[in-house]
Amino acid sequence: MERYESDTEGDEQETPLLHRGHEDKVQRAPVCCSSRYGLALLSSYGFFVVYSLRVNLSVAMVDMLNNTHQSSANHSGSLCPAHANPPRPKHNHTASLYDWDSETQGWILGSFFYGYILTQIPGGYLAGRFGPKWLMGFGILGTVVFTLLTPVAADLGASYLIAVRVLEGIGEGVTFPAMYTMWAAWAPPLERSRLLTISYIGAQMGTVISLPLSGEICFYLDWTYVFYVFGAVGLVWFVLWAFLVFDSPNTHPRISERERLYITTSLKNELSTSANYIPWRAIVTSRPLWAIVVAHFSYNWTFYTLLTLLPTYMNDILGFSIQQNGMLSALPYMGCAVLAVLSGQVADYLRETCQYPTVTVRKSFSFVGMIGPAVFLVAAGYTGCNYTLAVTFLTISSSLGGVSASGFNINHLDIAPSYAGILLGITNTFATIPGMVGPVIARALTTHNTIEEWQTVFYIAAAINLFGALVYTVFGRGSVQPWAVQSSYSHGD
């Protein structure tokens, strides 16, 4: 007998299937040495590569600029005193330097997202049609290749560097939709928060590790090695992914029969039997989907503002050297990674053990993960040259953002598991816009690099975050939508 879950707030049309009734009948497969958690770890490594390739330019940019030119153009009375730091080694600093103004820097930092936005929806469709494994694999491999070509492109000129970054974005654009499609076939409903937060923790760790490591590489070698080192790490990932990952439990040659049955049986009443039919009209008119779109867009405005410009803020305002810069820029994302994993455990505990409705959990975690960052981001703008307080507030801001990993961020799998890749492609398309325009707007607003200018940047990000949290709280849902439920009888696994 199937049980049903009402999704609250008087939406009488929603009477989707509840997952728990089916999963309780299936013997759970152990976590240790399981294929699904192996996939989580390897996909986490993949997202580590994705984000390390995305953010390393943010630190390298500080070292790519002609500092003599920059210092005469940018210093003003409102800048904080520079910190004492050890002299850089004299050897190996042979890389070219560039006289790019703040507008050009903004275009270079944002150019990645112009490519990234193009392959979001196609990525979701192609992953569902042809399988997510090779789509994600070759997408990241392409990004790796263009990363290795970055120093050559920079020497040719800013326009060539922008072109290479756009091509990197095209490659990375398919990764999240492909991985959501993969998880739709691999993640038992009551393990979703755990598996997905393990998987996407790699994105945070890529930021946490690549920012300080990029700073050290720039300090001891030069900025070109930033792209060579992380490119090599990406090549290693591709080899592992090619040999160890499979599209579904039924195609995995080494999965235990117990785990295969556990996964497929828990998902049999969620996944549509008609893989070729996509209810586009129902998808684009779905209020729960548009609630995720608004939340994702709003959250990413703050996230991408800090991701691309925090090293610049640390250098131009707080006066930290390239070596100190990377380490301090990583602190916010370290906190974000920790809270993302913890929130995944707590979210699944609240849903499974405490029987909280999924919609309540998703909305609560989204609210905390969006309002918290907004408050502390604004506060950071009023710390002046109190370096400790500024770094502390920025760290708390990004850390609280990690809570949303168990909120709207995985809500696609709750409302339409069969079409999760396509839904993620749609929401991530809109959520990429902040990465395209955010750095350009922020650099346009901070031409004189005053604290007051940066306060304006932080206020804009906080206001957008607040708006997104309110919209998602009102319109978000937590259960499978009627248009996403299979319309015919199950034909088995």
Distance between the termini: 19 Å
CATH fold group of the largest domain: Growth Hormone, Chain: A
Mean pLDDT: 83
Q: What is the helix tally?
A: 20
The CATH class of the largest domain, by name, is Mainly Alpha
User: What's the gyration radius in Å?
Assistant: 23 Å
- Low-pLDDT residue intervals, each spanning 5 or more residues: 1-24, 69-78, 487-493
Fraction of helical residues: 55-70%
CATH architecture of the largest domain: Up-down Bundle
Q: Count the strands?
A: 0
The class by helix and strand makeup works out as mainly alpha
The fourth-level CATH homologous superfamily of the largest domain is MFS general substrate transporter like domains
Tell me what portion of residues adopts beta-strand conformation: under 5%
Notes on the structure:
With 493 residues, the chain is mostly helical. It folds into 2 domains: 32-69 and 96-266, MFS general substrate transporter like domains (Growth Hormone, Chain: A, Up-down Bundle); 282-484, Growth Hormone, Chain: A (Up-down Bundle). Helix content is 69%, strand content 0%. It has 20 helices and no strands. It has helices at residues 20-23, 35-64, 67-74, 102-116, 120-130, 132-148, 150-156, 158-172, 175-186, 192-220, 224-244, 257-267, 280-284, 287-316, 322-352, 358-380, 387-401, 411-415, 420-445, 451-475. Helix 5 packs parallel to helix 9, helix 14 (287-316) runs antiparallel to helix 20 and helix 16 (358-380) packs antiparallel against helix 17 (387-401). The protein is globular and about 60 Å long. Mean pLDDT is 83; it is low at 1-24, 69-78 and 487-493.
